[in-house]
Amino acid sequence: MYTITEVARKLGIKPHTLRYYEREGIIESERTDSGVRRYTEQHIQWLRFVVKLRETHMPVSVIKQYVDYYKQGDHTAPERLKLIEEHLTAIHKQIEELQETEIMLKHKVSTYKDMMGTGTLSH
Q1: pLDDT digits 0-9 by tens, 9-56
Q2: Tell me, which fold does domain 1-55 have in CATH?
Q3: What is the pLDDT of residue 116?
């Protein structure tokens, strides 16, 4: 079992984020008799998934929908699959946009290096 601080450190997020996920129903921590949050390895695995979804800009509302479907049972697998497939499509678009940006930035770097090499750039 892990404390909120330990889990936050493992995942590279703030304890506040874990509390927020709990308020939103994305995670349900276990509690000690005194009310202290405790997390299992299973919690951590789930939270790693959630963190990756957030890092790739999946809205919290969609994650909550995924959780709601999961709680309803296996018969919602098609709905969960659809959410993940739609997000995967969005990630592919993000990758394409980042690749386009990389090309533009590489061109800009090349332009500046050429300018500096010919003495046409004053600084």
Answers
A1: 999 999 999 999 999 999 999 998 898 899 999 999 999 999 999 999
A2: Multidrug-efflux Transporter Regulator; Chain: A; Domain 2 (1.10.1660)
A3: 83
CA gap 91, 85 in Å, rounded: 10
Q: In Å, how far are 46, 98, 109, 113 from 106, measured between CA atoms?
A: 37, 12, 5, 10
How far, in whole angstroms, is CA 96 from its chain's centroid? 18
Question: pLDDT (tens digit, 9 = 90+) per residue, 56-108?
Answer: 999 999 999 999 999 999 999 999 999 999 999 999 999 999 999 999 999 99
Q: Which residue has the tokens 């592919």?
A: 92
- HSE, CB side, 13 Å, CA atoms: give it for residue 88: 6
Q: Largest alpha-carbon pair distance within the chain?
A: 72
